[in-house]
């Protein structure tokens, strides 16, 4: 999930962007800054299942009472310090991400096969290193949280987009999850669920502003970086040759960094030193080897634009519309300027694809 290689890069190359914070202190500061506003955390529930589900005999599934107790303790701990939780669950898989979804399901099948092979061979439960989430746990978790009186929402499109959008529009305290896409969205702060200590309510906040400072970029450049590195929409191999070209011309390769870390630094350096020179003057397709993938690339970029946001990387034309040869794409997330436009260059085709980031209008 998220941007290829970014999680490892943050942990090994840029650990300073990770700051230990305390939710109780953050909530008190939020209340003093916004009187009358309840501090709210948007929880990406799909990222938190592994944190909640920790039975010792996990291979058998079940342990419902213990699991329900863990959820109750989680909710009580945040409620005790006056923090409201909003839980988001995955709804549908978007058409553009189904190929990636299929790859993950096939990978899951291979992991499950390894688990069964281990059980047959050793006649015992494998270690935690082979842990796998039981089927249907997300559905039952949603019902459990409803029983505990919590507000749960099921996404109508990509869940991380709706989580980021909700956090921004409702002035939330932050997002709790484990997905590097939350570093790319220009939204409220992003907190790690894997680093959460429930007893003390300490966790790690990943700061996108510090990430930009380390890479020499602006926050508005992060969607471009994410697409060039590869994400759930842009296949990793689409810009592979471009990334290695950036790496070959990058003069500050660090010997102590891993290969992916150096690639991220090289691509960021290319954006800041080459692409910035022509920003607003030339179209991105004139600066990047997009080839026949222009529409997909721009859709990947637009997927990071939350309602009301615009990207400086889109060549400015009236009403935020870009013309790519015979393709026309609406790149503005301004609800007043959104129109459905044809994406196909075949004049006989009537298929229309909407490119806006309004969750209510995506169908």
UniProtKB/TrEMBL annotation:
Residues 331-363 are annotated as: Disordered. Keywords: Activator, Differentiation, Nucleus, Receptor, Transcription, Transcription regulation. Residues 335-363 have a biased composition (Basic and acidic residues). One of its GO terms (cellular component) is nucleus. It comes from the Eukaryota. It is found in: Nucleus. GO terms for biological process: cell differentiation. Its main location: nucleus. Interacts with ESR1 and RXRA. Interacts with PPARG; in a ligand-independent manner. Belongs to the constitutive coactivator of PPAR-gamma family. PANTHER family: CONSTITUTIVE COACTIVATOR OF PEROXISOME PROLIFERATOR-ACTIVATED RECEPTOR GAMMA (PTHR15976:SF17). Functions as a transactivator of PPARG and ESR1. Functions in adipogenesis through PPARG activation. This is Constitutive coactivator of peroxisome proliferator-activated receptor gamma. It comes from Macaca mulatta. The gene is FAM120B.
